[in-house]
Amino acid sequence: MRSKTKARLGVVGLGAIVVSVAATLPAHADYAPSPSDIVGVGGDTPQFDLAFAADGDTNGDAGFNAAGAYNRLVTFNATADGNARAAYKNGSTLGSPANLNPTVTLRAGTSPVQRVQSSGAALSALLADTGSPETINFVFSASRPTSAQQAQAGTNGWGFLHVVQIGKDNVEFMAANNSHAPAGLSIQELLAIYKGTITQWNQLPGNSGGSSATIVPLIPPSSSSITKTFLADLKTANGGTAPTLSSAVKTVEQNDPSAITGAPNPLDAIVPTSSARIDLYASGYFHDPDTVFPGGAVINPGVTLVEGNPGDGNTPYQSNVDHYVIFRQSDANSSTPMEPGGSKNFVQTLFSNPSAPTSPFFAKSTGKALVAAAGATPFYADLGNVT
């Protein structure tokens, strides 16, 4: 399902991760796309798939823009920081964070607008973009449109929101290196932990000799596709009824190892996360942000995925979260070429071309290599009108 990077990640550079809540990001400006560039916004989980696809990776794989096309593929990450950290105001602390609403300039000559920071928000932004010309051409998302969103696309005159899958990912549980957690956790055990009926490690089945410390259950924000997937799995395990989460469950930043290492009791904290993001950390992509150019040591965030056999005899928890690009079907039918003098529109060039299914950039080996470099398992499927 994914590339299995099994080395346990060390603690070198941990301090750089912990300060993600306490630090305030410097003012900066992203590249402001021209009116004819192809612009995408989206969620945290698939953002590096698109960032690498546009501009290449550190393995030497060239992105789409390296070919020198007149019109560029431009993506805006959900996180305001290149190390995938959220932005916070001056005076923020781990105990009292104050979120900043970072902004971006989506087109040259326009005013900054609030940065899109989740898959759901990206789809909402696309549906609200009814002007001419378009500001947002597509979104990258870890979830498909809802039926209501597809209906709104029809009302907007677009036909529907066209979905193309570009990768596969897993939702797994992250814990600190040398955690008090057992080798594996099942969805049945996690249901008990997140409901609060099990509060200590040695209360877990088959783990009576384990730590008596109190478990620290964490969860990403409700807008997170990781959280939506995990809560749906808890509901299924709870007989189809959404469980009431314990008051001990705290909300933390998505896909961020400092959610664990910055917790009051790191060895007892667990949180669902994208396994692709942990693989990206293990690849050495992220470096110490506290070191000036040309940069510091590779960040080894001190976490591991809990993937062993649970003590209750059930299978270890692992769920699927896929990576998508989503665009207007009316753009797929457009006669406007992406490049001056060309014959293919931007959808046919990048994402979907029924008359030549293997010709879009993301269907080619070059595009798939860049998705793999971001930690996901490349998987191209033109899904069309789905929810």
Radius of gyration: 21 Å
What's the CATH H-level superfamily name of the largest domain? Periplasmic binding protein-like II
CATH fold-type name of the largest domain: D-Maltodextrin-Binding Protein, domain 2
**If classified by CATH, what would the architecture of the largest domain be?**
3-Layer(aba) Sandwich
State the secondary-structure class. Answer: alpha/beta
Domain count, please report it: 2
Distance between the termini: 22 Å
Strand/helix succession:
HEHEEEHEHEHEHEHEHEEHHHE
Number of strands: 12
Calculate the mean pLDDT score and round it.
92
Task: Report helical residue fraction.
Answer: 10-25%
- Beta-strand fraction estimate: 15-25%
| Secondary structure tally, helices | 11
Major β-sheet profile? 10 strands, mixed
Uncertain residue segments: 1-28
| CATH class group of the largest domain | Alpha Beta
Molecular shape: globular
